[in-house]
Amino acid sequence: MTSRPIITPVNAENAPQSLHRRYSQAVSLSGHQRLLFISGQIPADRDGHVPTDFEAQARLCWANLFAQLEAAGMGIGNLIKVTVFLKRYEDRDINAKIRFEVMGDHRPALSTIITDVYDPDWLLEIEAIAAA
Predict the structure, then answer these.
(1) How many CB atoms neighbour CB 124 within 10 A?
(2) Which of 2, 63, 70, 93 could join 132 via S-S bond, C-beta 3.0 to 4.6 A?
């Protein structure tokens, strides 16, 4: 695995703070040699199977994202920005619970957007930027 860049959280005291302090409002990046832009990872397995429930879809999206990181010789600590696209507002709490679980103590910059997604069977999609 490649070395990790220096990722410094930036949270302006005169601006709103992150909810539950589970992400950084911004991150400063230094000491990196390359960036990895990860396309939206979908809730499908290699054979194209899409689970029907949100939790299974979310876990599969994260697994697919981690697979891309691993293929690039990186890990969760290399993530600097994550964007989650949710199809339904009511899935936001379970999405946050799973994200907290898979991210552990790592706090990249984060956005969650409620919007429609490409395939009607998908309930979310996750894209990210990583640095090494």
Answers:
(1) 24
(2) 2
Nearest 5°: the CA angle 38, 110, 56 is 70
Cβ proximity of 102 and 62 under 8 Å = yes
- Going from N- to C-terminal start, the domains of the chain cover 38-131
Q: Which CATH superfamily is domain 38-131 in?
A: RutC-like (3.30.1330.40)
Q: Both tokens of residue 128? A: 């990210």
Give the neighbor-by-neighbor strand order of the sheet with 35-41.
35-41, 124-131, 79-86, 109-114
Smallest CA-to-CA distance from 67 within 36, 89, 88, 93 is with 36
User: What digits encode the pLDDT tens for the residues 54-94?
Assistant: 999 999 999 999 999 999 999 999 999 999 999 999 999 99
Q: What digits encode the pLDDT tens for the residues 15-40?
A: 777 666 667 777 777 777 888 999 99
Expressed in percent and rounded to 5, the helix, strand and coil fractions of the chain are 30, 30, 40
Whole-number Å distance between alpha carbons of 1 and 73: 5
